[in-house]
Hints:
Structural class: mainly beta
Shape: globular
Radius of gyration: 14 Å
Distance between the termini: 40 Å
Helix content: under 10%
Amino acid sequence: QVQLVESGGGLVQAGGSLRLSCVTSGHTALSRFALGWFRRAPGKERDFVAAISWSGDDTTYPDSAKGRFTISRDNAKNTVYLQMSSLKPEDTAVYYCAARDSRLRVGPDFGREVSNDYEYDYWGRGTQVTVSS
């Protein structure tokens, strides 16, 4: 089975940077998946943070992340990253890694970097990011 494990969360000061990692397993090639990051703050719904296509050539971000967050992937290491900079207290949340399986889809959208959480098939358990003011 496909598994995702996040790491790299912690406490940082506002304006600081943090790099999250998500190591995947249970598959033969990470290129099988589009990958995404989502987050959930206490008492709030899960929000989209970033996504990257199966090839790594396309990314998408919400306005809250543009210019500050960068998603990347290293297929050889079966890992997807989220580089966060200029962090704000409102970035405080549990961050989740998710994978969208191209094997479950047909047509030109099979590996697209979509922003809807329901499009993703596998999820990690999350890593806490806390940004102090």
